Each structure stands twice: as C-alpha cells, then as structure tokens.
Amino acid sequence: MTEKLYDNDAFLFNFKANVIKCEKRGEKFLTELDKTAFFPESGGQFGDSGTIDGVNILDTQYDGDRIVHISTEPITERKEVLCEVEFEQRFRKMQNHTGEHIVSSIMHRRFGFNNVGFHLGKDEMTFDFDGEITKEQMAQVEKEANRIVCENVSVRTYYPTENELDAIEYRSKGEVEGKVRIVEIDGVDKCACCAPHVSRTGQIGIIKILGFIRYKGGIRIRMLCGLDALDDFKQRIAREEEISHLLCVPQSETVRGVKDLTAQNDALKYKNTVLKKELIQKYAEDILTTKKNVCFFKDGLDMADLREMCNLCAEKCKIFAAFSGDDTNGYLMVIASKTVALRAIASDISTACRGKCGGSDAMLSGRATAKKDEIIIFFEEI
Ligand SMILES: [Zn+2]
Q1: Is residue 112 part of a domain?
Q2: What is the pTM of this model?
Q3: Distance from the CA of 220 to the CA of which of 40, 307, 363, 375 falls in 20 to 30 A?
C-alpha cells in the first residue's frame, strides 16, 4: 500500500518516490508510487494535481486500496523520481477544509447540530447540518469562526491508540473505517478526518459564509475561506464596478441607482400603455364601415393590442382580422365577428394562414406563418 506522506505533513509539496507501476486505462495513465504527498479524492474533497517526473498529474484517485496519479502521458517505471504537488490549489483546499472544521464545531457546540454532508469542489464548498438556524445566529457563527482564525491556534493530527480514542470526545461524519485519525484544533475541536489541513488557524486567512438554504430538514451552507474568499471578493468588486459604470452612479450608491432605474422603467411602461391605447383608438377610427371582411396589419402590436383593435372594429364589418408581425417571422393574429360563428371556420383559417387559432364564436386568436398577400386573398374569398 502507498505510504501517505500527506498524513504526517500537509505542507510537503516536493518529494522523491519510486514508481511502482504505470498502466494505461482508456485514454489515461494511472501511476502508483511507493509513497505520495498527493491527496486522493475522498470525503467530498477533490484530488490533488501536480507533476511526477515532469509529467502533468491531472487528478489523484483511490483505485481500490491503491492511490493512483492520473495523467495523459505515461510515466517511466523507475526509482527516485521528483514529484511536486501543485501548492496553491492544495493550500486553498486546506484553508477551506480547516474553516469547515471550525464552523462545524461551532454549529455542534452552540446548537447540537451535526455536519451530515460535505462537498469541496474547484468552485465552491457546501456543507450540510441536521438542524436550522436563523440568519442572525449564522452571523454570530461566522464572527466566532473568524475570531478563532485571528487567535491563530494550532491544528494537529494524530492517530490515537484504541484506549486513547475511547477517552477522546470527537466529532465524526458517520462511521470511520480502520484507524481513526484525529484533527485537533487546540481548544476548539476534535474531529475524525483523513484530509490535509493547515497547521495554524491564522493560515485560513478569513472564513466567509456566502449564504445558506433549507436542505433536507436542516441547512446547506455555502462558504469560502482564504484565497478563494479573496477571489470571490475581487469578482464581486468587479461586478459592482461594472454596475456602477452602467448606472453612472458611485459604487456605494448602486442600490439606489437600480431602484431609480426600476421606477423610471415602471413610469415608461405606464406611459407606453396610455400612448398605445390612444394609437389603437386612432387605427380603429381609420377602419371604414363595410359589409365585407377586413384585414388589418401592423407590426409591433401584442395580443392585447390586437384584441383591443378587434373589440373596436368587429361591428364595422363581417369578419375583422388583425395581424402583427412580418412575412419572415410570422404573425400574431386575432379574428372577431358579430355575425359569423367563428369556431366553425377556425380550422379553415388555421389551414389557410398556415398556423393555429382557437377561441370562441366571437373571437379567435393564434399565430400564422402564411404571407400577408395569401392571408388577404383568403379573407377576401371566405
Ligand atoms: Zn478535515
């Protein structure tokens, strides 16, 4: 079995190891070393990347009991090859993971809730608890967690003997198989965990809860720590800068800017409705009274406008058919009559207009894909 160097030293990033085996599986190569500082994907945390003998390692996984390093190129089976774990990505995981321990310990101590789920991916970290708290309580948890960061207390890992373990009160995420590895944050928490962590809480930098939702009778927290929290902060500032430019207001006043814009938009919408109503009235006045059918075409109207036109003009002719759109994109249509039972001819209209319409004997509405000229001819002849 591969010796797990990360078990005793989470800050070992460069090491020499012997290549035991390199085998091809599908498009990938799986390399087994006699010892490794690469942490394999497990416990909800994604696997490490880096290089072995100059070859890029994309991921590290458990393959049964073995730890395998995954690459797209083969690695020569030989002794004493240079291996390097990608420092920053791994350090970010250690910051996030240790931050999670701190928050979980506070949730457990303050509210008696257990951590029942954990996911640490490349873009986000989520973890779940079997009980709910309020936003205000969450703010208190975050504050206490960051106090523990500032106190810069030590984090150590060890394997107690069975007798020692019996005397230790520790948290665990379900049943632990094999020897139990304890991660102890001095004076704060003891938890069974196999992953690498920072060695002092100050190295976490900052613990920022981004939000939480109700989840399976408890809550799911989204959180970022350290360099990931800094990146998130930078992205938020960039977004705020962009919004402030778009609104032409200082960054501190973007909320007021959006509220003003919404109010302006509502006022314009209202004005638009009034003007449109007047316009429809004018269009209707231009329709002359006749015993024939009348087709009306005007782009830019919606279904409500077409219905309004029909209400105003149905009495002026036999069948009044109003359309909005163009020959390329098709038409919205509303058809009305005071004298013809429209449902009886709805399918004829649908066929002739190459579309679909439905409704009552007094009014049909739908869509058409036929050309304007074809529609006019159809209504002249019907
Ligand atoms: Zn852990």
Answers
A1: yes
A2: 0.81
A3: 40
List the strands of the sheet with 125-129, edge to edge. Answer: 115-120, 125-129, 218-225, 207-215
Q: Are strands 319-326 and 294-297 parallel, antiparallel or unpaired?
A: parallel
Return the pLDDT at 175.
Answer: 65
How many Cα neighbours within 13 Å face the side chain of 15?
Answer: 22
Output the CA 227–ligand 1 centroid distance in Å. Answer: 18
- DSSP designation for 9: -
Q: How far is the CA of 105 from the centre of ligand 1 (A)?
A: 11
Query: How far from chain centre, in Å, is Cα 76?
Result: 41
* pLDDT tens-digit series, residues 332-356: 999 999 999 999 999 999 999 999 9
CA-nearest of 43, 118, 94 to 205 is: 94
Distance 32 CA to ligand 1 centre (A): 24
Give residue 80 CA to ligand 1 midpoint distance, Å: 30
Ligand 1 centroid, distance to 70 Cα (angstroms): 23
Q: Domain of residue 135: give its range.
A: 90-234
- CATH number of residue 229's parent domain: 3.30.980.10
